[in-house]
Amino acid sequence: MRLFITGATGFIGSHVAAAALAAGHEVIALRHSGAMPRIMLPGRPTWIDGSLADLPPGALAGCDVVIHLAAHGVTATRPASWTECARINAEGTLHLLEHARRAAVPRAIVAGSCFEYGRSAEAFDTVPVDAPLAPVGAYAASKAAASVLALAWARTHGGQLALLRPFMTYGEGEPAARLWPALCTAAMRGEDFPCTNGGQVRDFIRVEAVARTFLDAATAWTIGEGEPVIRNVGTGHARSVREFCTDAWTRLGARGQLRFGALPYRPDEVMRYVARLEPPVPMAHDIST
Fold first, then answer.
1. Measured in Å, how far apart are the chain's first and last C-alpha atoms?
2. What is the per-residue pLDDT across 158-184, written as a single tens digit (0 to 9) for each?
3. What is the pTM of this model?
4. Which of 12, 133, 181, 190 falls 20 to 30 Å from 252 in CA-CA distance?
């Protein structure tokens, strides 16, 4: 199949591109000029330099599926701009879908986020896809807006659309400041690892499993015309950050100490994000570290 992937130099996007190329699909990938994927790919995509706002004419011609993973603000080390998040995440998604419609691309797979649920997620042991959206912060709010736009667009214009909301994804190629790579770096260096008390409860899932789900949705799922589907992408298993760090620290043979409580929780911390997998989607639920 001929797949058009946005965000293919990002963390999850690099793994989706790798899985697609390994499966023998043709990949056309949108990127900022000169950007490279976060992992080694088993083949070479056809790169298109640009942004969602300036897609060249014909970029999506002949494509079977659009997989939309590009986003702004997800790895920001400072508060993300509300204006930029709205422009790129919400307006950019709608702009891409319009391009896909004009190019007669029959299927779109759009990456949402567990953070769209926000405060609502704390009310559920496992959060269902129809939970109210109560996002906290510019990134989460703009992703929720993008989801609402994409779902309404699909119901209005037809076509096949799946909205996938990944939960706490970790693994190779993850930005260095995030929990898993920072933990690994401290362990390898024999350093202590300062962290919060670790009371946050998360649904940790390996990035390879997330990538397989996106590729399966693109190439194998049954999706009705004008009947968009929403799926959580997680394991359904609750693990505290303290448990995750402790298990990983032991597995990595770390010599330093885990300094729980050395860092405060974020002021807007949502304490629980665990996926409810309904209806169940066949996938590998690898929760190992």
1. 33
2. 989 999 999 999 999 999 999 999 999
3. 0.94
4. 12
